[in-house]
Amino acid sequence: MGLAQDRDSLVRVDLDVEDGKIANIRASQPNAKQIDQRHTIDVQHGMVLPTFVDMHTHIDKGHTCERSPNVDGSLGGADSACLADEEFWNFDDVKRRMEFSIRSAYAHGTSALRTHLMSGPIQGSMAWPMFAELKEKWKGKVELQAVSLVVLSFYRDEDAAVRLADVVQQFGGVLGAAVSCSDAGGTDRDDWTTCGAEMPHLLDTIFKLASERDLDVDFHVDENGNVESMGLRRIAEAAIRNNFKGKVVCGHCCSLAVQPPEVVKRTMDIVAKASITVVSLPMVNLWLQDRDHPDHPWRKQSGQSVPLHCTRTPRKRGITLLHELRCAGIPVAVASDNTRDQFYGFGDLDMLEVFNQSVRIGHLDKPFDSWPNICTSVPADAMRLPTHGRIKIGGPADLVLFRGRCYSELLGRPQHDRIVIRKGLRISTDLPDYRELDFDLEKKVYVHEARDCPSSGFALPFFIGCFPGEDRNGLSLEKKQANRHLLLEQERYSQTVILGACVMAIACTVALTSRFMKNFD
């Protein structure tokens, strides 16, 4: 459009909104008399983003960290605590926590969200039906997608794997697995997510099941700091070997950051050829990776007993190679990941916070350039949502308006006074109260009544069956509990970056229709 950019690739524009869509994007006219001030919001050079796309979350586990805490903060500790929390799960519990998360994301300005769902026989039989109910309820507000979450070794059981793929297809989901995704990932000590020489065959099984059902795939992979952890490369090789036509997403990919340059280059060449999108989870991986715990190698290497109250400062950031991947032509995104659960005890599904912390952790600021796309149009493309995460003429007027006028202001404060616009109308940005989640541990019930009627607890007519090694003829409750540790936490890119430089824009005035303004009266 020939608009002048500033040093951060931002442009100053006016946005005309009519009938819920962007009617025009033009150079700012701060003194133009023809603008009807009654139908105008002057954001005084404040920044404008499209609504966010959060493509890797775990809302089925969210808000459980207080009732089932991760005692040592490690990945193994998270797995154990997540297992312990299963005793509190029922349909109403899952719905209350999942919808609390969706309401938070919506208020912060997210219009699309993908969640990984625990897909074991107990948790999965609640999470998938409840997801379907909430997907329909929030249609038009937050576009919801779901990914099955099981360990790679689950696919050893071909019958169970077929049943899971059928369930994912039934619910319009994405097929997933955790690959080389434990503290011991990539080594022969990890028989659940690495699976030794079986990995290629098991990955082939996943791609075959997905191809037969026209499903996309989304993996947890290499969530560790082990040089030996090569899950990302193996997934890329499998995608190429199977001539897979669907979308492939790989989350975490932490081990890439500790591998030798020649190994990294070879892996990235294969990943680029396989057209994989990599999603980094900077806040969670910074918090979880390289954390001290009683079994940490550092304690064994110290040569003497180290008191538990003396802890080791982390040396690694835990994130993948965002800069190098992007320079290799590989789409990269960031996402919230876990929220107030055993794998991350904080977060509120606020993608501005995710971008803010990603900038600091990953040094995405010199220059900012198109980095905002990693939480808008790039994840939208990976999720096949061509109208989300972009500001373009003819597109929906789904916007987030901020008081911050430049990046240092935008990222210097939380921007709790943001204005969220959906289809040209201002929505409430009031966040749900945490007191709604007050939980009585002894009675195993919530203290306060739910906001709406409880769900009719229906279960799947069929599900994934047994975990690897389980007796398909039936298990005792004790045996099931003993085996639960196998559950591991586990759109054509038409971005109209104003001036083709950045999805964000400094807006002097936003000219709107009277229908829009009625929401402000």
Question: Can you tag this structure with a few keywords?
Answer:
5-stranded parallel beta sheet; alpha/beta; single chain; 18 strands; 8-stranded mixed beta sheet; 15 helices; 521 residues
Structure characterization notes:
With 521 residues, the protein is an alpha/beta fold. Helices cover 28% and strands 17% of the residues. The protein contains 15 helices and 18 strands. The protein has helices at 75-85, 91-108, 123-137, 158-170, 199-213, 231-241, 261-273, 282-288, 297-301, 322-327, 351-362, 377-382, 407-410, 477-483, 514-517, and strands at 12-18, 21-27, 40-41, 47-50, 52-57, 110-118, 143-149, 175-179, 217-221, 248-252, 276-280, 332-334, 399-401, 419-422, 425-426, 439-440, 445-446, 505-512. Strands 1, 2, 3, 4, 13, 14, 15 and 18 form an 8-stranded mixed β-sheet that branches. A 5-stranded parallel β-sheet has the order 8-9-10-11-12. Helix 2 (91-108) crosses helix 3 (123-137), helix 5 packs across helix 6 and helix 6 (231-241) runs parallel beside helix 7 (261-273). The two termini are 34 Å apart.
